Amino acid sequence: MGHEAELSGPDLANGVAVSELAENVPFLGHAHGEAVVLVRTGRDIHAIGAACSHYSGPLAEGLVVGDTLRCPWHHACFDLRTGDALGAPALNAIACYETQRRGERVIVGAKKSRVEPQPPPNSPAKIVIVGAGAAGAAAAEQLRHHGYRGPITLIGNEAPGPVDRPNLSKDFLAGAAPMEWIPLRIDEFYGELGIDHLKNETVAELNTGNRTVTLESGAVIPYEALLLATGAEPVRLPIPGATLPHVRTLRTLADAQGIIDVATTARRAVVIGSSFIGLEVAASLRARNLDVQVVSRDRVPLERVLGAQLGQFVQQLHQEHGVAFQLNATPHAIDDGAVELEDGRKLDADLVVLGVGVKPRVSLAEKAGLEVANGVVVDSMLRTSAPGVWAAGDIACYPQPFLADPVRVEHWVVAERQGQAAARDMLGLGMPYADVPFFWSQHYDVILNYVGHADGEASVAIMGSLEKRDATVVYRRDGRVAAVVTVGRDRQSLAIEAALHRNDAPAIEALLRSGTAGSQS
Ligand SMILES: Cc1cc2nc3c(=O)[nH]c(=O)nc-3n(C[C@H](O)[C@H](O)[C@H](O)COP(=O)(O)OP(=O)(O)OC[C@H]3O[C@@H](n4cnc5c(N)ncnc54)[C@H](O)[C@@H]3O)c2cc1C
Ligand code: FES
User: Fold this and answer.
1) 394 alpha carbon to ligand 1 midpoint, in Å?
2) Whose CA is closest to 312, among 322, 304, 326, 302?
């Protein structure tokens, strides 16, 4: 988590010379006791709050793209003219201030009041959202944000409602984040927005013929428009002992609490799988002083996603923090006190965490007859094969503009933005979903920011120095940049994301040559 921006720079209520404001470069100051960023775009000068409403990232170190300001940490997007949160992971607007030119100076005035949204072009009689996770929760809020006043039912079966899932494997599991940080919203929030939030309810059936969903409790709820956002669930290995009580997976807050409970008395943990989640769990368990071994069939952790060199760097980081690796190793069985490998070795373990991937929860969609292939198949508007039904998040297999084949990704920001995009489309405000995929992963003091989408066949080149935490890793397919990971170069990550979005290959190459370093969260 970040912290509130401290006041620094000039008092902008007293004004600053316009000549000090370079075009499209955020300028940090303060006004009326709050940190404020000034941005000059052409003849306009905008003033908005300096702290991102996600984890308080420093917006003064972000990137201006058109009339938006992007956060350097996890790429939230804010409207410079209004402070509106245009793109997740920010769900709240930030303050926006009046600005006034007086001669050669600009003065920051009072906060602007929010403008009530106009009614949207379409207003479905009732909207139902199945799955109260990243995509579902973001969709529900987006509907209200765009002025939809009709009934919304958000149905979820995970206590306590929408949670900050990425935190579960990181600070929360490590004991560095309190419980209050985990729910995305306080209990009263949905009531205040007039959203009927059904907690602990499971949708058992979707009937696209008469447009209803049936809950396990038997209740039948009609819809005119429906979003399926049921996410994914961890894979359990089909080996003996995989369901023993000390063998855990991690998806929900309850899962994280369960791991913490076992970790309180456990001394030796084995993490099976060197996935992002597996490795983040390993780091968090080290923070709790457990001996940790990671067992993986891979030769190098994360090699298929990041390439061998970056994978080895991440492995080395974990080794420096005391994690031991058993690579090229396959677990054969688990018993009360050990994990047995296929080669006969036994690794002592009183806690085992399976981090071997997830599978999309598509059974509702399948039973309802929706087209399913590596997830629920959607078009560029995130519409499924059934009229009135959209899908978003980990279950959605969607056409990504710069990829030949439809893709399904498991990223927090993508899920939230797809939820928001589907909501807009329900209201007649849709645009083809074309955001560049982005995710981040944290390993001790190193944060990897990944933009784009590459697979194991991409060529990999490293620019800069991973050891110095100042590097760009470039993944190319057929000579074109398909994805980029940055370490310590947050602004470059934002700039490349924007250039990938424009499909501007020359700009991407120029950015790579310049190696612009940015802030690091
Ligand atoms: C521990 C962990 C750490 C992660 N860290 C990162 C990270 O650092 N960066 C990143 O980009 N991504 C990260 N991710 C991935 C990210 O959290 C997911 O991509 C994202 O949550 C997907 O959102 P979703 O809405 O599709 O699914 P979810 O957030 O899983 O939400 C789906 C919800 O639907 C509910 N549901 C399912 N079926 C039904 C039903 N029939 N009836 C009612 N409710 C139902 C589920 O219980 C769940 O609450 C992490 C994931 C995990 C598990
Ligand atoms: S802190 Fe700004 S996007 Fe996370």
Assistant:
1) 7
2) 302
Provide the token pair at 428.
């007649």
Residue 59 has pLDDT above 50, yes or no: yes
Closest listed residue to residue 299, CA positions, set 315, 280, 318: 315
Query: Could you report the per-residue pLDDT of 96-143, keeping only the tens digit for each?
Result: 999 999 999 999 999 999 888 999 999 999 999 999 999 999 999 999
Q: Ligand 2, atom 3: nearest CA belongs to which residue?
A: 74
Distance 77 CA to ligand 2 centre (A): 9
Tens digit of pLDDT for each residue in 276-296?
999 999 999 999 999 999 999
Structure tokens at 158: 């995970």
Q: What is the pLDDT of residues 142-157, one digit of tens each?
A: 999 999 999 999 999 9
What is the distance in A from the centroid of ligand 2 to the CA of 211?
A: 37
Mean pLDDT across 258-262: 98
pTM of the prediction?
0.96
437 CA distance to ligand 1 middle (Å)? 16
> Which tokens hold the place of 262?
């076992």
Residue in 245, 252, 302 with CA at minimum distance from that of residue 273: 302
Cβ burial 102-130 (10 Å sphere, 16+ → b, else e): eeeebbbeebbeeeeeeebeebbebbbbb
Ligand 1 proximity of 439 Cβ (cutoff 6 Å): yes
**Residues, the chain:** 521
Q: Which of 1, 61, 71, 490 to mutate to test the pocket of ligand 2 (most atoms within 8 A of CB)?
A: 71
